[in-house]
Design goal:
By secondary structure, chain A is mainly alpha-helical. Helix content of chain B is 59%, strand content 10%. In chain B, strand 1 and strand 2 form a beta hairpin. Chain B is globular and about 35 Å long. Classes of the chains: A mainly alpha, B mainly alpha.
């Protein structure tokens, strides 16, 4: 990570409302890629975009996911270790195809873009695409 | 945005001035947007509407510098996913919350379909 990349990541993260962005990112994942709903069958009503966006379990879980993402932001030089246990969890217990991590990462970027508009510069996007890629890779690392 | 976010995509435009804001980037970006506009008008017939562009994007004419032989190599099809992401980011930047989850879903599906047609050949 260059100093500039770290700065770009931190400056965006400091302005992120983790609860709102997390909820929105997860909701969009379930709406844009409906097959991902299969991992959340216990969440109740996922029958329409409106239902998904308003679903309190989706919102809570989205917040959880993005809070965890914050750990990566705080430990940029140690992401693999940070996600080691979560990687095992997603493989052994949750059975999630790692391709879905990449999809969620791209969706998070679009959510950030819609919130920050022109402040989400190309340089910001470069740093953040790199970050979501590293996180996705770390989450896939313990798969077997 | 694509050239900055995904520098590897620059390899498909070695003949371009790739400084941000260059005339060539603006010109080519406009071409791409116009082609997408045509695709929007032919949603139920993308294969036909994009047929010529499909040939262009599936294959890359490469010239071997030692033997000066031209041959077809794998084209920029996988880079189209990266362009799709950047296009959606630009839409999100411009539209803010009007880039709703429903609009997002529709555009993701549309751009994926366009990329698939361009990869057909």
């Amino acid at each position: 990570w260059t100093a500039e990349e770290k700065q770009l990541i931190a400056s965006v993260w400091n302005k992120v409302n983790v609860e709102e962005c997390g909820a929105e990112a997860l909701a969009r994942l379930l709406i844009v890629y409906p097959w991902t709903q299969r991992f959340f069958s216990s969440f109740g009503n996922l029958s329409s975009p409106t239902a998904i966006l308003g679903n309190p379990k989706v919102r809570a879980h989205g917040r959880k996911v993005l809070t965890s993402f914050g750990e990566a932001v705080k430990n940029l030089d140690n992401i693999k270790t940070t996600y080691s246990k979560l990687s095992e969890l997603h493989c052994e217990k949750l059975h999630v195809d790692p391709e879905n991590f990449r999809l969620l990462g791209d969706i998070l970027i679009i959510v950030l873009a819609s919130h920050f508009a022109r402040d989400f510069t190309p340089a910001c996007q470069f740093a953040w695409q790199k970050l979501v890629g590293v996180v996705a890779h770390a989450l896939a690392r313990k798969y077997h | 945005r694509m050239f900055i976010t995904y520098p590897q995509t620059k390899t498909y435009f070695p003949h371009f001035d790739l400084h941000p804001g260059s005339e060539q980037i603006r010109g080519h970006g406009k071409k791409v947007a116009n082609a997408l506009g045509n695709a929007v008008k032919s949603l139920d017939n993308l294969s036909q509407a994009l047929s010529e562009l499909s040939n262009l994007h599936a294959y890359n004419l490469r010239v071997d510098p030692v033997n000066f032989k031209a041959s077809w190599g794998p084209g920029p099809v996988f880079a189209l996913q990266l362009l799709s992401q950047c296009f959606q980011v630009v839409l999100a930047v411009h539209m803010g919350k009007d880039y709703t989850p429903e609009v997002h879903a529709a555009y993701d599906k549309f751009l994926t379909a366009v990329a698939a047609v361009l990869a057909e050949k």
